[in-house]
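ok so for the tutorial part 2 we go from a plain amino acid sequence to predicted structure tokens. step 1 is just haveing the sequence, like this:
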Amino acid sequence: MLRVALTGGVGSGKSTAAAMLRECGAYLSQSDEIGRALMQPGGAAFGAIVQQFGTGVVKADGSLDRAALARISFDDGRVEELNSIVHPLVIAEQARWAAEIAAKDPLAVAVVESALVFETKHVASAEDATPWRTRFDRIVVVTAPEEQRRWRYIQRVSGLDKAAAAADFDRRNAAQWTDERKAAMADYVIANDDSLEELRDEVQTLWEILKRESAERAGEAM
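step 2 — the prediction. this is what the tokens look like for a chain of 222 residues:
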């Protein structure tokens, strides 16, 4: 099996690329979805978040107020406090997911979509102090010009006016590595600065490469 990380800056289109890879036949785990589930009432991260950030991040219906939590995290410089709670749990769940896939499909291409592959300082356990490279066999970075990423983010964010959405983009963007820094560490780079059709062509080309590499790894293991 080939373990692939798919990452990129906010608004880069990594989720679109991930969905295309899933259409091609890849298994897909999305870190945001796992994180959201963990932060639901009863989820593994919920109690620790409320204890750390206070009841002000809980809505009247008992669910987590993600907008309030994001404001506190970014505006008060407490992002790492949140990450230290959520990231180890997400990473542990992804490890469990990858092991399950490897057991049933040795030829699988297992893709983890995550905004913070390089940036996270947190691991699944105190004993698992390994860098990101040991978690993945290949790293794919989706890039796009910053202004194009900002525009995409503003278009997709609901409930915020353009100024607020732009400010939110800037806060999130500042917490991530630049495209140039990420691309320098990647095995493959997808430039998502053109049409959707062009992105699909790039993803299809990448898929053929990843599928071949997974088959080669499986053959070597036999």
